[in-house]
Specification:
The relative contact order is 0.13. By secondary structure, the chain is of the alpha/beta class. The protein is globular and about 65 Å long. β2, α3 and β3 form a beta-alpha-beta unit.
Length: 278
């Protein structure tokens, strides 16, 4: 009887961090590509409930709050929906010294970027098993070369390690998990880097933060649009046997840097941070 009830549920794709940027592009791409699925757009921003037209269900949710997630799950189930696709896009970025910033600031970034996706998979695990569904975790190419003042990369390194564990656990029940690593994307995250020099404030690292703020943007190559990232995510959802990792507009400089011995990497980083001010 339970299996008969389960089969009557309409399958859905849920996207977190869907109020703008990559998230909004994913929602629009899913809406066009999967007309037979319910598309659920979630975000901590309360405006998410009215952002999309009636063809998309917008729901306010905090990926760090288990009660918030459980409330959304209850509402989804009350509507006769069952999650097949879960796209963990919600994230925050900032640049600051990890040795100086407060414990709460660092933990808050990990709570969203690293543990948010785990919270979501845990909450919808029975859905994903029943539908033999698909999880997409959004990482970053910055995991190749973690740098000073860039804790965002550290949170994504941790997410990728957890993704390996989740991928193998989900596979035992026929569900799949893939990781997407975008390079530079035209979103507010990129604006944070360009504007860093104007908001350094007081710090024992202020001189080096200033050098970082001047030099880091020069290392960027091509900047992709959110729709390009969304297209790759849609592809990962469509493939019967998706790849474990999908790369989008990755910077060849980071790929080269990743292969260098750690001693050389550190010397190059120190040289950049100690550069005379421009």
């Amino acid at each position: 009887m339970k299996s008969e009830i389960r089969n009557t549920l309409k399958q859905a794709i849920l996207i977190t961090g869907a109020a703008g940027g990559i998230g909004q592009a994913i929602v629009n791409g899913c809406k066009d590509t999967f007309p037979d699925y319910a598309i659920i757009a979630t975000d901590i921003d309360k405006n998410i409930t009215t952002l999309y037209e009636k063809t998309v269900l917008g729901m306010q949710m905090d990926v760090t709050d288990e009660y918030s997630i459980a409330s959304v799950r209850k509402e989804i189930e009350n509507k006769g929906l069952q999650i097949w696709g879960l796209i963990n896009n919600a994230g925050v970025s900032d640049f600051f010294p990890v040795t100086e910033k407060s414990k709460d600031t660092l933990e808050s970034m990990y709570a969203i970027n690293t543990f948010g996706p785990v919270n979501m998979v845990r909450a919808f695990l029975t859905h994903l098993i029943a539908t033999k569904g698909r999880v997409v975790n959004i990482s970053s190419e910055s995991i190749r070369l973690p740098a000073a003042f860039h804790p965002y990369a550290n949170t994504k390194i941790a997410l990728e390690a957890l993704s390996v564990s989740m991928r193998n656990e989900l596979a035992l029940h026929g569900a799949r998990l893939v990781v997407v690593r975008p390079g530079a994307v035209n979103t507010p995250f990129l604006n944070d880097l360009h504007e860093l020099k104007d908001r350094i404030g007081e710090s024992i690292y202020s001189e080096y933060l200033h050098n970082f703020a001047l030099q880091a943007p020069k290392q960027l190559r091509r900047v992709s649009e959110p729709e390009e990232v969304a297209a790759v995510i849609i592809k990962a959802l469509q493939k019967r046997k998706p790849k474990r990792y999908y790369l989008v507009n990755n910077n060849p400089l980071l790929q080269i840097g990743q292969r260098l011995p750690h001693g050389i990497r550190d010397r190059l980083m120190q040289k950049m941070l100690r550069a005379p001010r421009a």
